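// run 5 | inverse folding | seed 20
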């Protein structure tokens, strides 16, 4: 990762801004059946805003990169960014376009089920990012959702350019990684410094790219410095080369796991930017993910003091 990261201090978050439309139910209905909705509400969501909000909680300036429609959902996103003091420099309104949304069904056990409508948030253009911001970017977070766009090749070219300028790249494959074009996926992995999948996504990566040997060895051969595997309530497993690290999950009273993986990734980005050891990075990332599950909605309000208390066991 670039040696001039001490000068660079901005984070670009590539992934798209959407609305999460929540339905809280006692249990998910069987096919063809009906259940009562206990509560419903909306939140600005998507990996992009979850990562950006967590980084803001930690004092890091993060720029969501996304287009949004000029429809009511897009207006909600615009108002939210302004109220939350999240930079809007790279979030542009596209006239006549619809904003994407996700139906999030959460049952009594906090299990989530998603149904997503893709809007204009997947449309990427380098015009979204001004040259001065390119020059001061230390880190790029990229979610696999963004690579489902028709112009995914432009995203890869952009990531290649900004990495050449000295930025580090974190790639979160996402649950739809198997739908990403194989050559695009392979190119992004080759540009990634840090890979943050869960175990299911690793299996999908193996299948999509026909990886038959040891996955960690394969990833290391691609130039990936860190593979950090999210295991949910079982904790996290990380690899750097042949070295392996294990960290159990922090015990919290979870009410909604939406966005926990994104918040984990943001916490890790913070740790890398601070130049911390991998063990400390994993603790901060895990604490961010755990704390976020204690809120209803994808991006909770917590800070460094809360993280320190959780890590200490207070």
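// decoded
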């Amino acid at each position: 990762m670039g040696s001039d990261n001490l000068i660079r201090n901005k984070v670009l978050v590539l992934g798209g801004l959407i609305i999460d439309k929540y339905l809280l139910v006692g249990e998910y209905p069987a096919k063809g059946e009906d259940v009562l909705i206990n509560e419903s509400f909306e939140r600005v969501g998507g990996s992009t805003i979850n990562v950006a909000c967590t980084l803001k909680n930690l004092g890091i300036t993060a720029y969501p990169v996304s287009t949004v429609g000029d429809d009511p959902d897009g207006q909600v996103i615009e108002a939210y960014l302004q109220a939350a003091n999240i930079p809007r420099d790279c979030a542009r309104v596209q006239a006549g376009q619809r904003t994407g949304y996700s139906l999030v069904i959460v049952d009594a056990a906090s299990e989530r089920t998603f149904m997503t409508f893709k809007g204009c948030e997947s449309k990427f253009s380098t015009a979204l990012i001004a040259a001065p911001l390119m020059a001061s970017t230390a880190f790029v977070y990229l979610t696999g959702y963004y690579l489902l766009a028709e112009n995914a090749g432009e995203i890869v070219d952009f990531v290649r350019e900004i990495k050449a300028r000295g930025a580090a790249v974190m790639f979160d494959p996402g649950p739809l990684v198997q739908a990403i074009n194989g050559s695009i996926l392979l190119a992004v992995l080759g540009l990634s410094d840090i890979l943050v999948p869960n175990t299911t996504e690793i299996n999908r990566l193996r299948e999509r790219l026909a990886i038959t040997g040891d996955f960690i060895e394969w990833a290391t051969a691609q130039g990936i410095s860190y593979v950090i595997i999210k295991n949910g309530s079982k904790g996290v497993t990380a690899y750097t080369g042949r070295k392996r690290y294990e960290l159990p999950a922090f015990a919290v009273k979870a009410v909604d796991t939406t966005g926990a993986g994104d918040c984990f990734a943001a916490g890790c980005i913070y740790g890398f930017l601070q130049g911390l050891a991998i063990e400390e990075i994993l603790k901060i990332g895990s604490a961010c993910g755990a704390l976020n599950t204690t809120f209803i909605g994808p991006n909770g309000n917590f800070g460094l003091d809360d993280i320190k208390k959780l890590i200490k066991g207070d």
